[in-house]
Amino acid sequence: MKYRTPLVVGALLISLFAGCSTRPAHSAWTSSDSIVIEPGVSVGPVHSGMAMQQVVAELGEPDQKKDGVLVYRNLGLAVGPGKGGIVQTVVCGSGGNAFLTKSFTGHTKEGIGIGASRAEVVSAYGKPTATESWRGKSEFEIMKYDSLGVQFSLRDDKVRLIAVFFKP
Questions:
Q1: Do 81 and 54 meet the contact criterion of CB atoms below 8 Å apart?
Q2: 92-104 pLDDT, tens per residue?
Q3: What's the rounded Cα separation, in Å, for the pair 104 and 99?
Q4: What's 48-60 look like in SS3?
Q5: Listing from the earlier edge strand, what are the strands of the sheet with 36-38?
Q6: Tens digits of per-residue pLDDT, 60-117?
Q7: How far is CA 167 from CA 22, 45, 103, in A?
Q8: Which pairs from 120-129 meet CB under 8 Å and 24+ separation?
Q9: What Rg value do the Cα atoms of the chain yield, rounded?
Q10: Rounded CA separation 12/28 (Å)
Q11: Coil, strand or helix: which one is 18?
């Protein structure tokens, strides 16, 4: 399965930055410390086949919602819908910006999380399916692992975003 990183992740980020409505967060989860990413399958309690309403039931009301994307600023993640309101993408990122208040502190079972180096990602998952450069306000390298359903966006050789794509 091919993922179009600049389009998917870019669209998700643009929708988050562009005029999001703010809602109070009533999340049952207060930290992403214990959240484990299983590429292509789950990010903590958010899993493949889950409806967006189930995400809200599990994580609580999001801090922001725009075009169906649920943003949990204090968990460091955003959940994007696919067809039929089923979760398609979860983006975990570094905090301290307009998108996320806190950095996602969870990790994969191999120990890869925000701040991991490129070498650590390659050591854990091998050579990526493909790499791309994406230029916005800053330059990112995107490491795609299509068969796993995960992509790592790096800036300055450190993971800044982890995008998990659920298989249909």
A1: no
A2: 998 777 678 788 9
A3: 12
A4: CCCEHHHHHHHHC
A5: 46-47, 42-43, 36-38, 107-108
A6: 999 999 889 999 998 999 999 999 999 999 999 987 776 787 889 999 999 999 999 9
A7: 30, 16, 25
A8: 121/152, 121/154, 121/159
A9: 14
A10: 24
A11: coil
User: Please, is 94 exposed, middle or buried when counting C-beta atoms within 10 Å of its C-beta (0-12, 13-18, 19+)?
Assistant: buried
Locate 82 and state its tokens.
Answer: 């696919």
Q: Name the pTM for this structure.
A: 0.82
Residue 75 is encoded by which pair of tokens? 């968990």
Which two tokens mark 27? 């999340």
Which positions ≥6 away from 72 have C-beta within 8 Å?
25, 27, 29, 59, 62, 63, 78, 79
